[in-house]
Each structure stands twice: as C-alpha cells, then as structure tokens.
Design a protein that fits this description.
This is purine-nucleoside phosphorylase. It contains ten helices and nine strands. The chain has 398 residues and is α/β, with parallel strands linked by helices.
Length: 398
Amino acid sequence: MISPTPTTTPSRLDPTHVPYRHAASYILSELRSKSIPTPVIGIICGSGLSGLSDGFDPNSPSITIPYSSIPSFPRHCTVVGHAGELVVGTLNSLPAICFRGRFHSYEGHDMNTVVLPVRTMRCLGVKLVLVTNAAGGLRDEYDVGDVAVIRDHVAIPLLAGKNPLVGMNDDELGMRFPPTSDLYDERLQDIVMDASEILGYRDFLRLNATYAFVSGPQYESKAECAMLRILGVDVVGMSTIPEVVAAHHAGMAVVCLSLITNKVVFADASTEGGEEAEASGDGDGGGQQHAHHDEVLRAVSGRSEQLIKLVGEVVRRIGDAYLPTLADMAPINLETGGRVIGLEEGGGEGTREMRKKERGCSILNLMTPPIVPTHCVVMGGVILAAGVLLGTRMGKRS
C-alpha cells in the first residue's frame, strides 16, 4: 500500500488546495495513533444510509471521527439523515472509510466543500469510491426500493459553471481537462450485478441508469421532469455528480448506487402515460409538490438491511477481482507551506494567513483599480502625504 506521506514541499499551493490536505493530515495522525491501516476503499452515504458502516468488521480496530473535529470540514451536516461523521475500519478484509453524511451545494456550501470528503480520501490513498444516494425514479418500471446502478449522468449545474473543477487545477490530483466519458467502469457494474444475483437481490436492481444532478433545494417542476426524460434521464437527485467527477479527476474508480425513494410520473398528456403527477424526494432525491423528507427516510429504512449486505458483497468482490488490476497511485504531498485553517473557516474558502492579508488590503482594494499594483498606491499615498505636509508648513511660514 502506498503511503500518503509527503515527499517534497510544494513551491506554491493555491489556498483552495489546502483544506483537504489539512483534513487528510489530521485523519492520518488519528489512524497512526491507533495503528489503523489507511483505507483503500471509500464509501459516501446518502440520506438515511449512514447504516452502511454497520457492515464494518467489529473485531477489527476502527475509529469514528465527527466532522466537527476535522480541520477545514464544516462543523455539521444540516440535512436530516446525515450523521456528520466518518468511520475508518475494515470491510470484508479491506481497509475502508465511510463518510456518514455529505455536504450539498443547496446548504450554501461551495463546490470545493461539497467534494472535500472525496479529495480528502484521495490524499489518504483511497483507490475506489462507492457513492450512494436517495433519488427520484423517472422510469415507469422503477419502483420505490429499487437500486439503480449508475452508468452515466447529466449535470446541468456543472455544465453551467457550478463545477468542483473550476478554479486553479491541483496537478497532483489530476489533469486540467479530464474526460468523463470513461467515468463509470462497466466491470464495476458487472460486479454489482453478480453480487446482487448471489444475494438474491436481482429483482430490485436496475442496471445502466442515467442520473441527473439538479442543484435544488426545490424539487423539479413537471416540465423539468419531462425535459429530463427527453434527455434520457432515469433517476434525478441533488447530489453525487460533483463527488464522482472530483473522484474521477483525482484518478479514483467510481461505483454509484441510487436507492429509488419515490416515483416521478407526469400529468401532461404530452408525456408518457398522461398520468397524474405525484412524487416525493429528499436532500438527495428528486420530486415535485408531494415531497416529504420523512417518507424518503422510511423508504430508505425499508431497504437498509439489503443495502448493507449488497455493499459488503460488492466490496468483497472488488477486493478480489478489481483492486489488484488498478495501477498504484502516486502519494499526494500534504505539506501546505505553513498555512493554517481554523475549523470555523472550513470549506476551502481560504486560509487564516490569506484572510489577514485580505482584511488588511480591503480598503486599498476599494480605492485601487485592478490594473494598478497595490505597492504603487501605497508609495503614491506616502508621496502625496509628504507633499501635503510640506505645503502646509510652507504656508505657515509665509
């Protein structure tokens, strides 16, 4: 296993690249203090799915870390059904990390914060991320409780610039212009299908689904649902795609499972069936005017036991047949050049050092056009003040 211990100090580090390095450094120190192996598999839990960590081996060493204690992480999740903590332990003989709760853009987080857990995992040495969510089903044959294996996605917010890859690229994570046509590996979909057949879950597994990411928090209108169907979308939700794009950018393999917590049907005669519209959803799922978060959590609860077993079997098969085929990943340099981020400053918004400079220069920034260097304004101000003082004294003498 590759150690994420840094090798060289970067000459220059963008402030947005600091938070996940600080978070990973803290988590690594906690793991080493308890002799817990660094994870190679990562799991992100959707609404009500925090129980996925219950599949961890109780006889192996583990640690639970609340988000509030991790540098640069938001103090808590604001959506019901997200525990706001991570668990590191062993799942079917593989070192694993499980994030029990995610951050959504509709909570007010920027995209760097939304994908903070993913980039932290990459810094820890995670090779594969299994992402789960609760979603609304747009296909007539999908039923509440079905599990859709995502094959592709439509992400209108990302196309419009609300994208975790916007800004200074971290070359240690990945390339500036990454392709996404190869994001979802068909071999992993086959592994999920085989695992479901072994467990007898094939009847509620839906393969080759396309997921639409919408920013929320409002649910989709009838016309928007119809548009998504025209685009070939099968399930819709308010999360996941920023995370899987960031994971793919960082070189990690991705498995994405959507639990259908509601069905979206249509009232407009121009859409399929011409049926009365009725839908529900949650912070992850899509829906319309009949959405209730507690209904979504009940739907998740009804399938939680099977999901825990499915994820466990998928991870076992990944460890046996898939992980050995992956190339080793270069360790991420965790040195940050002395920048310090306070817990209250989480989310990749900057560093304490940077913010002091910003506060000190805020008045100058208001007075200075962007094309004039600040040091020129300062020198000009000194010369002007000296001239005024000299003129005042000469006036008194005359």
